[in-house]
Write a structure and sequence with these properties.
1127 residues, mainly alpha, five-stranded parallel beta sheet, three-stranded antiparallel beta sheet, 12 strands
Length: 1127
């Protein structure tokens, strides 16, 4: 038998009077060419034709296939293929943004690409779709579901019967475990419950015990999630992450997504294996705002490559013709007029086109004609159809044809958002009979879809139109009635049993089995969503409003326990609204709990205005001792806003109310007396007694620990602002801790106290400081109950104020890096970045290779600026110093703009901006950096000027790392200036000698740290006063000491100064080597350090030429000596 298409073609050629006859031989040729090029569409008989012949029905439904976006789909597939092909050498995460109006086919475009990639070996595709109304399905829970799906892939392989799949799952799981650790995995269980299945037997459901764990922050999440993705990518897989309806995501979600992508992109060899597709409605959010406001990191990060930006417009007439040709399996000549009419009515709006064509099928305007073996239609009927001005009006007109009872079912479903779980429908069946039996009919009509246990509106626009079919009053009334019904179910005597039974497989929150969770909480939040949508005006009865408030409190606590603070705040604030104006007098305890929850959630989200607003309500209506918890949160909020002075002042007032003895105007005498008093008190307690105080025995008095927490919240801002109250606060806390047996909680104050024992007035007492530092460590180490937060802050203070005078800079840097990782694990982002910033500063001044330091700044500046401006300022300062030394350029323009508020191109620009900071410590460090650069460049007069300016910054006298190098290089500058001025300025010489004496007093503290510096200052001083025998001896001793202790940069400097001395004295003294040889050695070690600029300047200045082979040999020799020292 001939195919029906051939029969039709012959018939149309023979019958000239037929409406489908050919107009020309060109049309015949075109039909034949179509049959040749696409025989499966235009030549072969389709199954639907045979079915249609047997009955009048047809299975055709428009929208099942994707049409008109072939170019865009090809572009995205090409990007995916390039990701898989090593020859393209892509760098960083690849990003594509797809935009268009609602119903333009964005989601279908990406879905078509996702389907193609899913069929390819090695691709994992996960999706998230944000919703307009937050609540039960908050943006965070939607992201939780998406990232859960990534791990579900590993669980599926783990349970496979294929040994290769099982081995792969085990290998990746091991990498995840090594990257994150068991403790962090346990903390992630709330966000990623699938971990319980992936690491079954390793982490348990007790990881979900919210009372015993701290809230997990977005920063912790981004680190953990990027590590998980990295482990999968590193095992030969590719991941496509798709986020739909970005216009409805919240700020926290944008931050989490961008942080994860940036971190994944930093995985050099595998970052490009991750493809991110972001979909958004262009009529609700513009591309510029999407990047500049919501996704700024993606625009500036070097680890993310925004490859494609696709904006979908309406379908053209040709697109429509192609769609109809394929779907109806007819040549172009037969569908062109239909395409013309449909395009005119819909203007090519993709979803409008699909809805109109499907309505033509449902209304039998387009039908299959068995006699002609093809689809036919009545064009006149199509022309007179009223479609409205847009797709929404058209959908609304179609809804009018639905029976009122059926429409009410759809309206009930629309109250729960775009998707509803079958388990919930079973409960709602008792509220409104007939819901379950209506679902299949709606799916058949294309109004609903089903995906597993979920019933989903087939498009956002359908959901919006169904929901909009009710008036505002009707909608709120329906929400209230549904909420009251669910509330009765919740409050029923057998509620827990029935809810657990019905919700055992509930997928509303994260589309994962909620193993180990309280199933009742899901119904509570669903109930809250309904009563909250109705509002308090529709729940006027006091007992009813109180119930609504209690439900919101329960839901808020549940989401806060899962670290979803956006959702938690939503429920807490709605609970407050239901209680009304007289809440503090009528429902005091309930109101207090709601406000406390709102304060904590607002703080977790960084919303300072809400913290202050809700906290003030508590302060105004509750007894002082009951406000302390929220007062602590307010202090921390002020500190995060860098309102350090306000925070310190407010904290001091609170401590005075807690009977801490803090004077109105502290003086040196008062501070000295307080410190002596505390030292006398604590001298009565031997170390073993202090250890007993940290054993956490007996019952606790919460008020004691609250007082410590108040003081603890003030320490950092007081330290930052150089408050004279800082030592007094530390004294009071230390005294309080001994008197009340809570030394562990006061460990940070012990560390602060050790810092002030080290330096008071103009004297340094390192022995006393070391004693108190050891005491602080004893408190941390001997306590059976570990407090990671307190331990990190205590160790950080000790490393930066005490240990840096006793240990090699590289050893301190190594400890800071370990501390950085510890702080990351518990989400202490500020402490972590302080550790990271100072670690690289210690490495810089400790002689670490400058090229590696330069790379570290390139990798970390952007992230640091985003999360901590204070640390970013210092990192930028050091970065500019490194650029001066190496001659390399670090692109930090965007970081400078975010930190300083204006473009900064040089160190001088930073100097002009620093005046506005009113940060004495930063200004002092700026002048120190300028002095170093001027000194190394040989500009002694300018270096001397910067040194004098630095003397006006008292912060440089504090026992910090900068004090060491301010003293050392300041002394070198002064002594060199004295010689340059002909030895006529005795005042400068005296200042240089004082620096040398200061360094001499520190040598006994740490020979490894101060020996070579003190010897070099002695050499320079001896050269100034003409003691040449001692000068020669000290130069050589300094060179040897620098070699012994591994200070490459100071070894280079010692060789340079020794060369200067030999050159100035014409090499006439017996121990003088050739100045040229000394300068060559200096160049070798400057090069080894990475200070290429200094080496090249020195070579030009002294007209040196070095044989590359000899230079390399000397360089290797220098390295081997340092290697022996480290061994």
């Amino acid at each position: 038998l001939l195919p029906k298409s051939i029969c039709r073609l012959i018939a149309d050629m023979i019958d000239a009077k037929s409406v489908s006859s050919f107009a020309s031989f060109e049309d015949v040729l075109f039909d034949l060419e179509q049959m040749i090029s696409q025989p499966w569409v235009f030549l072969h008989d389709s199954k639907c034709c045979f079915r249609a012949t047997a009955s009048s029905a047809t299975t055709l439904q428009f929208g099942q296939k994707y049409h008109g976006r072939e170019k865009e789909a090809s572009t995205l597939m090409k990007l995916a293929i390039q990701i898989m092909d090593p020859k393209y050498q892509l760098i960083g995460v690849q990003v594509a943004f797809i935009s268009g109006m609602a119903g333009s086919g964005k989601s279908r475009l990406v879905q078509s690409v996702a389907d193609n990639l899913s069929s390819l070996s090695g691709w994992i595709v996960v999706k998230a779709k944000f919703e307009r109304v937050h609540g039960q399905r908050s943006p965070r829970s939607i992201l939780s579901s998406m990232f859960n799906d990534i791990l579900s892939y590993l669980v599926t392989l783990k349970e496979s019967h294929n040994p290769v799949d099982v081995a792969y799952s085990q290998r990746v799981s091991k990498r995840i475990m090594e990257s994150i650790g068991t403790d962090t995995l346990s903390e992630l269980v709330d966000f990623l419950p699938i971990l319980l299945l992936l690491f079954e037997g390793i982490i348990g459901e007790d990881g979900n015990n919210h009372a015993n764990k701290k809230d997990i922050t977005n920063w912790q999440l981004s680190i953990a999630l990027s590590a998980i993705i990295g482990a999968i990518l590193n095992s030969g897989r590719y991941i496509m992450i798709c986020c739909d309806d970005l216009q409805w995501a919240d700020a926290a979600s944008f931050s989490l997504i961008s942080d994860v992508l940036v971190k994944v992109g930093y995985f050099t060899d595998i970052g490009h294996c991750c493809l991110f597709m972001g979909i958004y409605r262009s009529d609700e959010i513009g591309y510029e705002r999407l990047l500049s406001v919501l996704f700024p990191c993606l625009q500036t990060s070097s680890s993310v490559n925004i490859t494609e930006r696709i904006e979908l417009s309406n379908l053209s007439k040709d697109d429509l013709q192609g769609m109809l040709m394929v779907e109806l399996q007819l040549p172009r000549r037969l569908v062109s007029e239909l395409a013309e009419v449909v395009h005119k009515k819909t203007t090519g709006h993709a979803f409008f086109v699909v809805e109109l064509l499907n309505s033509l099928l449902r209304d039998s305007i387009v039908t299959y004609c068995s006699d002609n073996c093809r689809y036919s239609w009545d064009e006149h009927r199509i022309v007179i159809i009223e479609t409205g001005k847009n797709v929404a009006e058209f959908i609304a007109s179609n809804l009018k044809s639905i029976e009122p009872e059926s429409l009410q079912v759809l309206q009930i479903l629309s109250c729960f958002g775009i998707q509803t779980d079958f388990s919930l429908l079973q409960i709602l069946e008792k509220y409104h009979g007939g819901i379950l039996c209506s679902i299949d009919n709606f799916i058949e009509k294309g109004i609903l879809d089903q995906a597993g246990p979920l019933v989903i509106f087939s498009h956002d626009l359908i959901h919006e139109t169904v929901y909009g079919s009710m008036t505002l009053h009707e909608g709120k009334l329906l929400h209230m009635r549904i909420g009251q019904f669910l509330g009765l179910e919740l409050d029923a005597p057998l509620a827990i049993e029935s809810v657990t039974k019905n919700f055992g497989q509930l997928h509303l929150k994260d589309q994962t089995i909620n193993s180990g969770r309280n199933m009742t909480s899901t119904l509570v939040s669903l109930t809250c969503d309904q009563v909250n949508a109705a509002g308090s005006d529709y729940n006027r009865d006091h007992s009813q409003r109180e119930s609504c408030a209690k439900w919101n409190l329960s839901a808020g606590q549940s989401f806060a326990g899962q670290s979803d603070f956006s959702a938690a705040l939503y429920y807490y604030t709605n609970g407050v609204t239901f209680l009304g104006q007289d809440s503090w007098s009528n429902d005091h305890l309930l109101c207090l709990e709601l406000h406390q929850g709102a304060v904590l959630s607002s703080f977790a989200l960084g919303n300072a205005a809400d913290v202050d607003r809700y906290a003030q309500k508590v302060i105004d209506n509750v007894a002082f001792e009951d406000t302390l918890d929220v007062q602590v949160v307010v202090l921390k909020s002020l500190s995060l806003l860098e309102k350090h002075k306000e925070c310190t002042s407010r904290g001091i007032d609170l401590l005075r109310q807690l009977n801490f003895e803090l004077p109105l105007a502290p003086s040196r005498e008062i501070i000295g007396h307080a410190m002596a008093s505390v030292a006398k008190l604590t001298s009565r307690y031997p170390s073993d007694h202090i250890a007993n105080l940290c054993q956490d025995k007996g019952s606790k008095d919460d008020s004691k620990y609250t007082a410590i927490r108040v003081a603890d919240a003030v320490l950092t801002p007081a330290y930052t602002t150089h408050s004279p109250f800082l030592p007094l606060i530390a004294c009071e806390v230390v005294k309080f801790s001994f008197q009340n047996g809570c030394c562990l909680e006061a460990a940070a104050s012990f560390a602060i106290f050790s810092r002030f024992k080290t330096f008071m007035g103009d004297e340094y007492d390192f022995t006393a400081g070391k004693h108190w530092a050891d005491l602080a460590r004893t408190i941390i180490n001997c306590s059976p109950k570990k407090d990671p937060s307190s331990e990190i802050r205590t160790n950080l203070v000790l490393l930066l104020t005490i240990d840096n005078f006793f240990e090699h800079p590289r050893d301190v840097a190594s400890k800071l890096i370990h501390l950085y990782h510890d702080a990351r694990k518990i989400g202490q982002i500020d402490s972590a970045l302080i550790c990271l910033t100072h670690a690289w500063r210690f490495r810089l001044f400790g002689g670490h290779n400058l090229r590696l330091i330069c790379k570290a700044y390139e990798d970390n500046l952007e992230f640091t600026a985003k999360n901590n401006i204070y640390c970013a300022k210092y990192m930028l300062l050091d970065a500019f110093l490194v650029m001066q030394l190496t001659g390399k350029t670090i692109d930090c323009s965007s970081v400078c703009s975010s930190v300083f508020g204006s473009p900064v191109a040089s160190l001088d620009d930073i100097g002009s901006e620093s005046e506005s900071f009113k940060d004495n410590r930063f200004v002092g460090n700026f002048h120190l950096c300028k002095m170093l650069i001027c000194y190394w460049n040989g500009n002694l007069v300018e270096a001397g000027r910067e040194l004098q300016l630095s003397y006006a910054c008292p912060s440089l006298k504090m026992p910090r790392f900068s004090l060491i190098y301010h003293t050392f290089f300041g002394g070198l500058v002064l002594l060199a200036l004295h010689r340059q001025m002909g030895g006529s300025n005795d005042q400068i010489l005296k200042q240089g000698r004082d620096a040398m004496k200061g360094m001499e007093s520190w040598v006994n503290v740490s020979m490894a740290l101060f020996d070579n510096k003190w010897l070099l200052l002695q050499a320079e001083y001896s050269a100034c006063i003409g003691d040449h025998d001692r000068a020669q001896m000290m130069y050589l001793a300094s060179i040897n000491a620098a070699k012994d202790h591994g200070y490459t940069h100071e070894l280079a400097l010692a060789y340079e100064l020794w060369g200067n001395y030999c050159l100035a004295n014409d090499n006439k003294y017996s121990n003088c080597a050739s100045s040229s040889e000394s300068f060559r050695q200096a160049c070798v070690y400057y090069e080894q350090w990475g200070a290429t600029t200094l080496a090249e300047k020195l070579m030009r200045r002294h007209n040196l030429r070095m044989h590359p082979g000899a230079r390399k040999a000397e360089l290797l020799e220098g390295k081997s000596k340092q290697a022996r020292r480290r061994d």
